Automatic annotation (TrEMBL):
Protein's UniProt keywords contain Iron-sulfur: no
Origin superkingdom: Bacteria
Keywords: Signal
Keyword Signal (UniProt): yes
Annotated protein name in UniProt: Extracellular solute-binding protein
Matching InterPro entries: Bact_solute-bd_prot1, SBP, TAT_signal
One Pfam family here: SBP_bac_8
Signal peptide per UniProt: 1-21
């Protein structure tokens, strides 16, 4: 394999409307072309495994070389605007979806519209309509309409991972209601075990907060929060319940006060090594847990809620400054082929355009079934930080204050509401 790989940092199944049309591979050819590619998926993640295979296929078929750099999520998030507005921009990169991320870059003219490539390759036919929301953005960078600025190749959602051995040790069953969930967590606390692996320094606690709000919300509230259809009252029942419940769970020992200083990696490894019996986070951990978790584990959706954080996965985006857009489009197409999608699914990912007959790993069935359950009930509610470019950091800061006791629930909601309103696009304030 000719791929040039630079480590710049340490770094699931919804079937599309029909099977992909078969594509015969062109003969390998010699080329001096180079595709520069960035993504932040680990080597042993489902996406990392599938995309590594896609790089090999791409090089064999095109004769071009892939110059791949693994950048961390935070590196790309914090520097994208500057890098993509320079001659250092790659030809293709993985980028977070949503108004505050891909939407913002599209409104700044930093991403290439993909409408012609979508028509040429038929990507709109390969992706379920509910997964196309995060691929399209209007002139203000608001998702759901306008031109295509990204292409998802996987789905994702947030759920509970639980240590089945610890549940069996203490005679506990998987909860089916919020009341039962709290009873399970209290049982662990009574045994001196902190039940939830959490991190307020990065996204996990924000996603739990949002899930608690969703447990009290309907689709209109999600549309108001994410798509600005109506103003959002942060003292209203949805966010008030979420913030008060997080505080209550900290006070009851369900969440450790140490979570204020922890990152997502800390929470994930805490679950991997068996310190915590439960972890509420994204399906992107699934492949890693298959590979690294010390005890047996399984998953369940948040009990008693119709909606959960989730969407299409992150997007392939093509910078406007890309030096070889055609090569970028060819690579995207390869990552949507059935054999690459099946490889992703067999390694714990949520493929969006796979042929079910190609899948061989039965351990992924639960992951895929949960995602399909959410799709069937219109349950993908996106993510809490999407509405504004700064709300990711602001939500983390507010919840850190809530957990360490420097902010009351009312003060947290007031601060978050002010941050949210201040960051909204000018046209919707």
């Amino acid at each position: 394999m000719k791929t040039r790989r630079t480590l710049a940092a340490a770094g699931a199944l919804a079937l599309a409307g029909g099977a992909l049309a078969g594509c015969s591979a062109p003969a390998a050819q010699e080329s001096d072309d180079v595709l520069t590619l960035w993504h932040y998926e680990g080597d042993n993640s489902a996406m990392g495994i599938a995309w590594a295979e896609a790089m090999e296929v791409f090089e064999e078929e095109t004769g071009a070389t892939v110059e791949f750099e693994e950048r961390s999520f935070e590196q790309i998030r914090q520097t994208a605007s500057q890098v993509l507005n320079s001659d250092e921009a790659p030809d293709l990169l993985e980028y977070n979806k949503g108004n505050a991320t891909a939407g913002l870059l599209s409104s700044q003219g930093l991403l290439e519209p993909l409408d012609d490539a979508v028509a040429e390759y038929g990507w709109d036919d390969k992706l379920a309509p509910s997964l196309q929301t995060t691929a399209r953005y209007d002139e203000n960078g608001v998702m759901g309409s306008g031109s295509w600025y990204g292409v998802p190749t996987y789905g994702e959602y947030v759920q509970f991972f639980y240590n089945t051995e610890m549940f069996e040790q203490y005679g506990l069953e998987v909860p089916t209601t919020l009341e039962e969930l709290e009873e399970v967590m209290q049982a662990f606390v009574d045994e001196g075990v902190t039940p939830l692996a959490e991190a307020a320094g990065e996204y996990p606690l924000g996603q739990l907060w949002y899930q608690l709000a969703l447990s009290q919300a309907d689709r209109q509230w999600v549309n108001d929060y994410q798509l600005y259809e109506n103003p959002v009252d942060f003292s209203g029942p949805e966010t008030a319940y979420a913030t008060e419940t997080v505080k209550d769970w900290v006070d009851r020992g369900f969440i450790s006060g140490d979570a204020t200083g922890l990152a997502a990696e800390d929470a994930g490894t805490g679950f991997i090594n068996g310190t915590y019996p439960m972890f509420f986070s994204g399906s992107w951990w699934y492949g890693r847990f298959l590979d690294e978790a010390q005890d047996d584990w399984a998953t369940f959706l948040f009990p008693g809620a119709e909606m959960s954080p989730g969407s299409s996965g992150n997007l392939w985006v093509v910078p406007a400054a890309s030096g070889d857009k055609d090569l970028a489009y060819q690579f995207i197409e390869i990552t949507l082929r059935p054999e690459i999608q099946a490889l992703m699914g067999d390694n714990g990912g949520v493929p969006v355009a796979a042929d079910a007959a190609d899948l061989t790993n039965e351990s992924s069935e639960e992951l895929i079934a949960n995602f399909n359950t959410l799709l069937d009930r219109d349950g993908l509610a996106f993510y809490p930080d999407w509405p504004t470019p700064t709300f990711y950091d602001e939500l983390n800061a507010g919840l850190q204050g809530l957990v360490n006791g420097t902010l009351t629930p009312a003060e947290t909601n007031e601060q978050l509401g002010a941050d949210y309103d201040a960051g909204l696009p000018a046209g919707v304030r």
